[in-house]
Amino acid sequence: MQSLVIVAHGSHLNPESSAPTYDHADTIRATGAFDEVRTGFWKEEPHFREVLRTVEGDEVYVVPLFISEGYFTEQVIPRELRLAGWDVSEWDSDGLSADQATLVAEDIDREVHYCGPVGTHRAMTDVIVRRAESVTNDADVGEGFGLAVVGHGTERNENSAKAIEYHADRIAERDRFDEVKALYMDEDPEVDDLPEHFESDDVVLVPLFIADGYHTQEDIPEDVGLCEDHTEGYDVPETVDGTRIWYAGAVGTEPLMADVVLERAADAGADLGTALDDVRETTRVATGD
């Protein structure tokens, strides 16, 4: 029996924080690739510490719905899941290459395939591009457009910026958009000055966050100049200093994110059948679909 557990941060303050996790779990559940699909949270129920006790499968795959490697993926989740013998060196990662580690969860005495976060997986690149297609309602968007991949950034954790730079570089290599830039909230180059970083008249802004919350709904729109007060709303696109900005909202709300979760499980050995093709087909975006 094959089981999938998606673990995410959640929030006591924002009831919408867990919505993407539930949505992606539902999408994967519908494919039938797993006998059961469970969700667990740090700030909501069921908690990380309890979620494995709800799982019946003998092949358990745990996928963290987090953007970067760091405190939660390297310390909190393994500790709360009680993964015996966990050591971050199991991943032998450079901050982007965490793959999977197979360990025994002590309280259920079963092996668990613990995967790296979704945000550093190569498939996330396609989700960012799909997000640009979704917000513009154009499956061919790219020519004449710039793309801003935006992350939090912090000097306290160098891995925070690595995922943003990684995906921005991969998209730039495709030569689909006229310009691709990695911008940050707390590092240079800052998203506040977005028009200064682009020559394109149209720029799609995709925040590399899992859920829409304080940063994506309040900070970024106000800092970029889409509005003075987020409670008053703004148009998409909104023109700021002569640049039309297509604000996409959190990348984690894009339905194709379910594909990245599946890719992580597949890399850890899960048998997915046609699930990957099914998810990409059912979540595609094309004008007129």
From TrEMBL:
Keywords of this entry: Cobalamin biosynthesis, Cobalt, Lyase, Metal-binding
SUPFAM superfamilies the UniProt entry points to: Chelatase (SSF53800)
Coiled coil: none
GO molecular function, one term: metal ion binding
InterPro entries xrefs: CbiX-like, Sirohydro_Cobaltochel/CbiX
Xref: Gene3D superfamilies: 3.40.50.1400
One GO BP annotation of this record: cobalamin biosynthetic process
PANTHER family: SIROHYDROCHLORIN FERROCHELATASE, CHLOROPLASTIC
NCBIfam families referenced in this protein's UniProt entry, alphabetically: PRK02395.1-1, PRK02395.1-3
Protein name in UniProt: Cobalamin (Vitamin B12) biosynthesis CbiX protein
Source organism of the structure: Halorubrum coriense DSM 10284
